[in-house]
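Appendix C reproduces, verbatim, an entry submitted by the partner laboratory led by Prof. M.T., so that reviewers can inspect both the input and the predicted structure.
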Amino acid sequence: MSSPRQSPEEFDQAFESIEQQLSLFWRRSRAISHTLSRSLHPEIEPGAYGLLVILRREGPLRITELASLIGIGKPSVSRQVALLEQLGLVSKEDDPDDRRAQRVTLSPAGASEVDELRSRRLEFFRDALGNWDLTDLSQLSDYFSRLNDALGAAGRRRPEPGAQPSETAEGPGISPTP
């Protein structure tokens, strides 16, 4: 892992710094997502916005597919979908491939809300990072992509405590959303 110029202690210090920065980033991004999500409706959790974005991008999906894509459990997704359905942002329809199953569909109101929230998020990032050079923004995006790939791969290699041998973790709740 270390090269002749770097000691294992230097790598450990770098990893500790990365962990601290990721924790701070996670807390700040969660607070921002929470504020923006609550601007849609006071009861909407930040993860629900991710569900709406996935439905906007992918089209109708089963709850199990949504849970897999967002990286959280089916019961949590079911609760969020139920709230989104009450708010008129999604609807459920019979799955044409399996009449026993249902697909969640983004409603026109839901699509409008996703577009509005996406605009607010972009405005926030333009304000926060607008003075960065495009090269720096591209590099940051590339680094995040590499980081997410590495964390996802590491999570799949490491079983969760109490999981069956075939079950693996996907990482610390990081979703493939906006």
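Helices lie at 8-40, 46-58, 63-70, 74-86, 108-129, 134-157. Additional entries are available on request from the coordinating office.
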